[in-house]
């Protein structure tokens, strides 16, 4: 049998501790997410239900009560009662990307940062283990390296 084009993805999903399914908070993104969840259930880890995240939540794309509209749609069409809803916060997201830093570092008071933090706290309350601390790299240094002080870098 020839290798499947998505073989690496299927293997990663089958062995994942946690699967996060992310969809956009607009009619097309929600429709794609609802269609993808049953497929994901077939190929993902048997015991784990994916964490469903809806990104860029805003009134302009789903109506005046976006939180309720998305929650109702996912409950009705996908049986998802506890999605993580992340607000559309382009200022904070753009600052994070442009600076190459986390939201906590460049926009600690943003609505997006608060929602991500709450989602992490809720995940830990459900018994998930804390991810390991990231390894520090030379980019994390607050003082210049020896190479920079010598004018090399």
TrEMBL record:
Region Disordered: start-end pairs: 114-153
Q: Which Gene3D superfamilies match?
A: P-loop containing nucleotide triphosphate hydrolases
**Top-level taxon in the UniProt lineage:** Bacteria
Where is the sequence biased in composition, kind Basic and acidic residues?
A: 118-139
Q: Where is the composition biased (Basic residues)?
A: 144-153
**SUPFAM superfamilies linked:** P-loop containing nucleoside triphosphate hydrolases
Q: What is this protein called?
A: CobQ/CobB/MinD/ParA nucleotide binding domain-containing protein
Print the organism lineage: Bacteria, Bacillati, Actinomycetota, Actinomycetes, Kineosporiales
């Amino acid at each position: 049998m020839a290798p499947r084009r998505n073989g690496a993805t299927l293997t990663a999903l089958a062995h994942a501790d946690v699967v996060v399914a992310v969809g956009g908070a607009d009619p097309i993104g929600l429709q794609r997410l609802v269609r993808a969840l049953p497929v994901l259930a077939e190929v993902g880890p048997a015991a784990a239900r994916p964490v469903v995240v809806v990104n860029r939540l805003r009134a302009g794309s789903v109506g005046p009560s976006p939180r309720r509209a998305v929650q109702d749609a996912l409950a009705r069409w996908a049986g998802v009662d506890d999605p993580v809803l992340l607000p559309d916060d382009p200022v904070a997201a753009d600052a994070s990307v442009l600076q190459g830093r986390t939201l906590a570092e460049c926009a600690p008071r943003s609505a997006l940062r608060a929602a991500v933090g709450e989602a992490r706290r809720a995940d830990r309350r459900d018994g998930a283990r804390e991810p390991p601390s990231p390894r520090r790299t030379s980019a994390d240094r607050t003082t210049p390296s020896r190479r920079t002080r010598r004018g090399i870098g």
